[in-house]
Amino acid sequence: MPIPTIAIFAGRFPEDRYSANRGYIDAIYALGGLPVIVPAGAGAKPDQVVDLLDSVRGVVLTGGGDVEPAQYGGADHPKIMELDPDRDAVEILVAQTAVERGLRVLGICRGIQVLAVALGGTLVADLPSAGFEGHWQEDKQYEPVHAIEVEAGSVAGLALGGASIVNSIHHQAVAAPGPVLRPTAWSPDGVIEAIEGDGVLGVQWHPERLLGTDERHLAPFRWLVDA
Questions:
Q1: Active site residue: 135, 171, 206, 217, which one?
Q2: Above 70 in pLDDT, residue 1?
Q3: Which residue(s) pair with 107 in the sheet?
Q4: Exactly one of 68, 193, 208, 217 is catalytic; which is it?
Q5: Which of 109, 170, 193, 196 is catalytic?
Q6: 109 is annotated as an active-site residue
Q7: pLDDT tens-digit readout, 52-62
């Protein structure tokens, strides 16, 4: 059988380079897939990048900075950070096109937010300002820090692989997933932690950073590669 090729979209961070946490790549390799890193930023023409989808079996939208509020009708906020409108343009079109073509799409952290925006949803611009504390725990990014409640029988439940505690490195979250996707996992304070639809899964935690201590977090990547 052909090796499943997975496009992993990477943003600019820091400013002088494109980058993606090695956990995304390691996970795809571990499951017998072939990861292809696609830079999404200045110089990338969204229509040309979309042509790449003809040669891949799935898409990973990775973590990174905030989505430009204008993309979902939101207002500017003083806590917005690391905006990259060029990356937004590429990844939003990629998400929409992949869904139209029936490719599986996995969105992680920023990726879940891109999925929501691409398919008609909105975001919480800053969780602490909205009354939700404790979701930015970068100093503990490689360890689980809070429980998660998941809808029984959902893809999000499958993606947890039996785990019940996840890490948390985000100050934004999905406010409403739009008409195509639905929420299927929540943190104890009610913040949406997963959204899903036909062939689409977005998770707010970072499974790629938990692989080193808990192989159950390969599960969302397995869902993607095994398709």
A1: 206
A2: no
A3: 61, 202
A4: 208
A5: 109
A6: yes
A7: 999 999 999 99
